[in-house]
Amino acid sequence: MKNVFAVVLAVFIGIAFVATAFAQAPAAPQTAAPAPAPEKKAETKAAWKGKMHHVWGEVTAMDMAAKTLTVKGKKGDMTFDVTDAKMKGEPKAGDKVKVTYMKKDGKMVAKYVKIRGPKKAEKPMAPETAAPAPAPAPAK
Predict the structure, then answer these.
(1) Where are the domains positioned within the chain?
(2) What is the C-alpha to C-alpha distance for residues 80 and 100, in angstroms, rounded to an integer?
(3) Distance (Å, rounded) from C-alpha 55 to C-alpha 98?
(4) Which of 26, 69, 75, 107 has the fewest CB atoms within 10 Å around its CB?
(5) Other Cβ atoms within 10 Å of 87 Cβ, number
């Protein structure tokens, strides 16, 4: 009886090893699908190599037709090309923004435009009204 049990156990262990070997085999090659254009990605990354600058300021003008953004910062009015810029929302005149840009071909090209939320306004102190305090419970 022990011999039969040993043989059955050996067969199960052998099957387990063979199954794991087939599970690790590489998959059959798939048909080659056209890959996305890596040249465009490489071209875009190569175009953005350089020194990035930041400016914080207030939007004075946004021209969506010309894809330009004018920001009044510490150094005066600056106009950025926002054609390829990543923006959350559309800035409008009066918004506070942070623009990350670089100089390319003689103009300032924005990479990111982040609209800064409005500063928390201080809550005006409500005038204290002299409300009478509740009367203490009578002692027993």
Answers:
(1) 49-116
(2) 10
(3) 6
(4) 26
(5) 15
- Provide the 3-class DSSP secondary structure of residue 87: strand
Q: Which segments of 1-140 are extended strands (E)?
A: 53-63, 68-73, 76-81, 86-87, 96-104, 107-116
b/e string for 25-41 if b means 16 or more Cβ within 10 A?
Answer: eeeeeeeeeeeeeeeee
Beta strand 86-87 with 68-73: parallel, antiparallel or unpaired? unpaired
Task: Render pLDDT for 3-50 as a digit per residue (tens, 0 to 9).
Answer: 888 888 888 888 877 766 666 656 656 665 565 555 555 555 555 556
Of the CA atoms within 13 Å of residue 76, those in its CB half-sphere come to 0
Helix (H, G, I), strand (E, B) or coil at 110: strand
pTM for the full model? 0.48
CA 67/CA 55 separation, integer angstroms: 18
